[in-house]
Amino acid sequence: MINLVKQKLEKVKLLRKYTEEILALSPKLDDEKISNMIEERQEYLDSISIIDLQINELLTLDENNNLNTEEINQLNKSIKESVKEIIQMDKVIRKAINTELKDVKIKLNQPQTKFSSLNIKA
């Protein structure tokens, strides 16, 4: 059980670091890279989910609650803190992407031309 929780903590730390890399990018300049990284990020989330399933299986088999040790509780606390940080970074990323989308929409809906009229000769 402790090994699974340690593995989960390591995966969450990797996810946090990867999310920090995404956060450091500019939606205006690196939109394609951000999109690809967000898709790749799903692999981290999937691996954490697999570990969660394994932990839950062990917990259902543990009728006497012998697996909850102080070390596991400390590891779980670290995992929760990291997940909170990831959630905050996700909010910032989403806000930056939404702001960029709004800016593009405004530019597309209100094109500003430099010419007051356009002469076309046939």
Order of helices and strands: HHH
Main beta sheet: none
Shape by Cα distribution? elongated
Beta-strand segment tally: 0
Low-pLDDT runs: none
Could you report the average pLDDT, rounded to the nearest whole number? Answer: 87
Terminal residue distance: 79 Å
Number of distinct helices: 3
Which structural class is indicated by helix and strand composition?
A: mainly alpha
Radius of gyration from the CA trace? 23 Å
Structure explained in plain terms:
It is built from 3 helices and no strands. It is mainly alpha-helical. The N and C termini lie far apart (79 Å). The mean pLDDT is 87.
Quick recap of the structure?
This protein has helices at residues 2-24, 31-61, 70-109. The chain is mostly helical.
Attribute tags:
122 residues, mainly alpha, 3 helices
What is the element layout, followed by pairings?
Blueprint: H1 2-24, H2 31-61, H3 70-109
